[in-house]
Amino acid sequence: AIQMTQSPSSLSASVGDRVTITCRASQGIRDDLGWFQQKPGKAPKLLIYAASSLQSGVPSRFSGSGSGTDFTLTISSLQPEDFATYYCLQHYNYPWTFGQGTKVEIK
Amino acid sequence: EVQLVQSGAEVKKPGESLKISCKGSGYSFTNDWIGWVRQMPGKGLEWMGIIYAGDSDTRYSPSFQGQVTISADKSISTAYLQWSSLKASDSAMYYCARLSNGVCFDHWGQGTLVTVSS
């Protein structure tokens, strides 16, 4: 199975900060990667699909990049509603695998 | 509007069977895949498996193969996740989500909390 190594596992940031989260795949996965946001007690929400495409309705401060094995989710200017846990998911081949998650907390 | 509506919370005893559901609406159910994701208390997301609603082609994670059964009834636009003999370690939140036109998990159900306790 493809391993998705997500880093950092947690971070503290302030409103307005630029935040970067990375996912590294144990083998190439083209751009078959999505990024999800999960708030406590809620279902995950798709932010980015195909590594860099912004899902409809998601604010433009979220962006994704990468292809092959290295991927990045960037929040250009962190907002209060962005404090949550973020996950990557590869769907290149079965079994699909999630990263371990990154918890973004208020500094 | 695309919606995935899951069945309600369940409290079961070890050894009991269970089938939870995920009903799709607002789109062509038979054209898309429905996946299942487990989240144990305080933990991350785990991909369990996925089913193509049109012909019930199903793929499982090795971690869940043989432990659960994923099925679908396209006549009522509903996917299922079932256990034949629950264990305490099956206690978790379970989510269904849609894969459509190559966009992975663009819509999610609200989750079904399963509690297994003697």
Bin the helical content of chain B.
Answer: under 10%
How many beta-strand elements of chain A?
A: 11
Contiguous uncertain segments of 5+ residues of chain B: none
The portion of residues assigned to helices of chain A is: under 10%
Global geometry of chain A: globular
Average pLDDT figure of chain A: 97
The dominant shape of chain B is globular
Oligomer: heterodimer
Give the radius of gyration of chain A: 13 Å
Q: What is the count of DSSP helices of chain A, taking H or I runs of 4+ residues?
A: 0
Report how far apart the termini of chain A are: 36 Å
Radius of gyration of chain B: 13 Å
* DSSP strand count of chain B: 11
Count of DSSP-assigned helices of chain B:
0
Global structural class of chain B:
mainly beta
Quote the distance from N terminus to C terminus of chain B.
Answer: 40 Å
How would you describe what is shown here?
The complex is a heterodimer of chains A (107) and B (118). Chain A has strands at residues 4-7, 10-13, 19-25, 33-38, 45-49, 53-54, 62-67, 70-75, 85-90, 97-98, 102-106. Chain A has 107 residues and is mainly β. In chain A, the strands form two sheets. In chain A, strands 2, 4, 5, 6, 9, 10 and 11 form a seven-stranded mixed sheet that branches. In chain A, strands 1-3-8-7 form a four-stranded antiparallel sheet, with no helix packed on it. Chain A is globular, with a radius of gyration of 13 Å. Chain A starts with a strand and ends with a strand. Chain B is mainly β and 118 residues long. In chain B, strands 2, 4, 5, 6, 9, 10 and 11 form a seven-stranded mixed sheet that branches. A four-stranded antiparallel sheet of chain B has the order 1-3-8-7, with no helix packed on it. The radius of gyration of chain B is 13 Å and the shape is globular. The model of chain B has no long low-confidence stretch (mean pLDDT 97). The A-B interface holds A 1, 32, 34, 36, 38, 43-46, 49-50, 55, 87, 89, 91, 94-101 and B 35, 37, 44-47, 49-50, 59-63, 95, 97, 99, 102-106, 108-111.
